[in-house]
Amino acid sequence: MMRIKNYLLGSFLFSINAVATAEVIPVYQIDQPAATYLQTTLTHDIYRYAADSKLNDLVVTDEQGNKLPYRIGSTHQVREQIQLSPLHFFPVAVGAPPETLLALSSASIKLDANEISVSVEKTVNEQLLDKSAPIDFFVVDLSDTRTRADKLIVDWQVNETNQYLEVQVSGTNDLTNWSNITQATLAQMQKDGQKLARNKISLNLTEMQYAYVRLKFLRGGEKLQLTSITLENTDKVAAALVVDSWKVSGELADEQKSVLHTGDRSPSVSVAAWEFSRDDIAPVSRLGIELGSVMYGDAIRIFSRSSDKQAWQLVHQGIWFNAQVGSEWQQSDAIKVNNNTDTQWRIELNELIRTNAEPVLVFHHQPETLQFIANNSAPFKIAIETDPTQYKQNTSAQVFSQLISGKEIQWTQTNFTELKPGISSFARHGLQVSWKTILFWGFLIIAVGVLVLVASRLVKQMSTEKAL
After folding, report:
1. What global pTM score does this model have?
2. Residues 137, 154: one domain?
3. Residue ranges for the chain with pLDDT beneath 50
């Protein structure tokens, strides 16, 4: 009897200890790095395993399982310096000879009576412009530009006939012999105060490659009125950063009435609604929508929530454009969503596209850089701590700061290998009750059953002895 009791007590204590022990599940592995101060880039994939959107449950361990000091910070972002320069341009009528172009672009020389200097001022001789003749093309003057020419920004007065412009771009130095540069399609659309503009032409010209550029509009050029042409040059002052993006497909929602609560008693509006679920909690900075080859320029509403038990929260409301510009499909710019970690999403569009659209959400996330101090015990593992009570006790960042304080450190970029652990091993994806908890209750039930059985036998034995 005493042996049985000791066995049950030991099993009970073992179960308690198993439940109480935190588990560290490796997600990535770094093999034999050639430096001590290491850094690697974390994408949204780590958030598939993490239960904390700030990665407080992340740990770095060596081969023996010792935790190493580390810190997580934002990756080095690109900072672009954009230079805008307004350019002189003029229209050229059909049939205009080259000497007319030279006269239109000629420079007038001015002498300053007080100083020995010469200034050149570009003017357009209005008398040479034949306003009654149709416009054949426009000439943009780059002769004063001493830098390269990356892009042209073209603005015009938009009407129904010239929302889309097909333009052929050529260059010359003598206004006689033209060389083809590129062909582009421009677009400007407006609705309810919102605008889709694709009005930039990529030139990619080297410094002083051409003195003049010709814009010949093959489509939409009838009665076209250009309002301005601007040269845009972009200089990158930091290393380029690849934005972490991924796509999630959705399904038609059961509820095809808008979930937007307006606060009045008006009937719900019929919409085309799709719902999406992502398996990560990465903080999303921007959100895009792909509608494929479906023309769209109408209202859109975007909602999100973290679980089925919550009501949908409005994230964005506005106009979304999806249009074919030339041979390519263009859509509105991605929407800023302020580091949203919700896993469930819903979009509502005009009900007319319900049967011919299959929207795809495109999530954008700013990758983080993980820096840690290695020891001589490789391989190193990037892992997730499953015990929530350990999150607040993680002082790794403070220790890390103390170790590198006052030192000039060269960080070595390193890559990791994905270990691909079972997703069900992590509490956020698996059962809310872990296998250790189930094991504990299993042992407890068995122990109670054995005790009841032993007690019933003792009672039966005592009854037999009394009868004798």
Report:
1. 0.70
2. yes
3. 1-21, 107-121, 127-128, 431-434
Q: Are residues 287 and 402 in the same domain?
A: no
Which amino acid, residue 165?
L
User: In terms of domains, do 212 and 314 share one?
Assistant: no
The boundaries of the domain holding residue 351 are 244-365
Percent of the chain clearing pLDDT 90 (strictly above): 55
Helix axes 435-467, 2-20, angle to 10 degrees: 160
Cα 88 to Cα 101: distance, rounded to the nearest angstrom = 13
Same domain, 208 and 100: yes
HEC letters along the chain: CHHHHHHHHHHHHHHHHHHHCCCEEEEEEECCCCCCEEEEEECHHHHHCCCCCCCCCEEEECCCCCECCEEEEECCCCCEEEEEEECEEEEEECCCCHHHHHHHCCEEEEECCCCCCEEEEECCCHHHCCCCCCEEEEEEECCCCCCCEEEEEEEECCCHHHCEEEEEEEEECCCCCCEEEEEEEEEEEEECCEEEEECEEEEEECCCCCCEEEEEEEECCCCCCEEEEEEEEEEECCCCCCCEEEEEECEECCCCECCCCCCCCCCCCECEEEEEECCCCCCEEEEEEECCCCCEEEEEEEEEECCCCCCCEEEEEEEEEEEEECCEEEECCCEEEEEECCCEEEEEECHHHCCCCCCEEEEEECCEEEEEECCCCCCEEEEEECCHHHCCCCCHHHHHHHHHCCCCCCCEECCCEECCCCHHHCCCCCCCCCHHHHHHHHHHHHHHHHHHHHHHHHHHHHHHHHHC
Q: Is residue 390 part of a domain?
A: yes
Same domain assignment for residues 416 and 397:
yes
Q: Are 361 and 375 part of one and the same domain? A: no
**Burial letters 146-173, b for 16+ CB under 10 A, else e:** eeebbbbbbebebeeebebbbbbbbbbe
Q: pLDDT tens digit string along 409-428?
A: 888 999 999 999 988 888 67
Do 187 and 334 sit in the same domain of this protein? no
Domain final residue, candidates 365, 387, 413: 365
* Structure token pair of residue 74: 């934002």
